[in-house]
């Protein structure tokens, strides 16, 4: 990992985030959901800390930076959907098993403990909770993990400009299909209780 690019006040925040679970708790409870009232943004972790807001992409960038501070590679994967927004996860491995940290306005699309043997297992844990407001289950594909070290030249952790190069790359790379055409045709609607639970706390 390169020398920390953060200033002393920023490093003080990261020093508190000593586990992936603490990173997830910080995103859930200390970072408000960014509804982009002034238009689309893709803020660096520095700016997420400054404004104390972040949406899915910004939360994933922050989580990747915080995981990097703990010695994990800063890995993101993109979850691709239909008739819905994509979702981005910061992922990590512990004892050979995958976990994730994520920011979402839907309660079921946030972090996962590192108990999944494969990335596909991890991604499928989001399937029943990934739905739109028409009660449709919308998750379809996932990308390979992208190491954000490839974007160090644009200072993705501290840039004052939006770091659009990251989500653009995530959308451009190949994605693995999760369902067959037959499985898609047979999908049922989201259960009312899962739907209500997913919207709990949504702002």
Judged by helices, strands and strand pairing, the structural class is: alpha+beta
Number of domains: 1
CATH topology tier name: C8orf32 fold
**Helical percent range?**
25-40%
User: What general outline do the C-alpha atoms trace?
Assistant: globular
Largest sheet: 7 strands, antiparallel
Query: What is the terminal-to-terminal distance?
Result: 36 Å
List unreliable stretches of 5+ residues.
none
What fraction strand? 15-25%
CATH class group? Alpha Beta
Provide mean pLDDT, rounded.
96
Structure report:
With 203 residues, this protein is of the alpha+beta class. The protein has a single domain (8-198), classed as C8orf32 fold, CATH 3.10.620. It has eight helices and nine strands. The chain has helices at 8-16, 20-30, 45-51, 56-69, 119-124, 165-172, 181-185, 192-198, and strands at residues 32-33, 53-54, 75-81, 87-94, 97-101, 112-116, 139-143, 146-147, 175-177. Strands 3, 4, 5, 6, 7, 8 and 9 form a seven-stranded antiparallel β-sheet that branches. A hairpin with a 2-residue loop joins strand 4 (87-94) and strand 5. Helix 2 runs antiparallel to helix 4 (56-69). The longest helix has 14 residues, at 56-69.
């Amino acid at each position: 990992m390169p020398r920390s690019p953060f200033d002393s006040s920023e490093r003080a925040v990261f020093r508190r985030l000593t586990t992936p679970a603490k990173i997830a708790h910080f995103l859930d409870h200390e970072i408000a959901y960014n509804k982009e009232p002034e238009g689309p943004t893709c803020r660096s972790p520095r700016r997420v800390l400054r404004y104390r807001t972040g949406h899915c992409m910004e939360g994933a960038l922050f989580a990747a930076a915080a995981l990097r501070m703990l010695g994990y590679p800063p890995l993101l994967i993109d979850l691709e959907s239909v008739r819905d927004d994509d979702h981005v996860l910061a992922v990590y491995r512990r004892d050979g098993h995958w976990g994730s940290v994520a920011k979402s306005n839907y309660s079921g699309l946030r972090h996962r403990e590192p108990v999944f043997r494969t990335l596909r297992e991890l991604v499928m844990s989001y399937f029943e909770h990934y739905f739109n407001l028409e009660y449709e289950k919308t998750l379809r594909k996932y990308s390979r993990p992208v190491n954000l070290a490839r974007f160090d030249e644009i200072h993705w952790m501290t840039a004052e400009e939006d770091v659009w190069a990251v989500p653009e790359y995530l959308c451009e790379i190949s994605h693995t299909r999760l369902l067959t055409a037959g499985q898609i045709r047979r999908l049922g609607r989201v259960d009312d209780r899962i739907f209500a639970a997913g919207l709990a706390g949504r702002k």
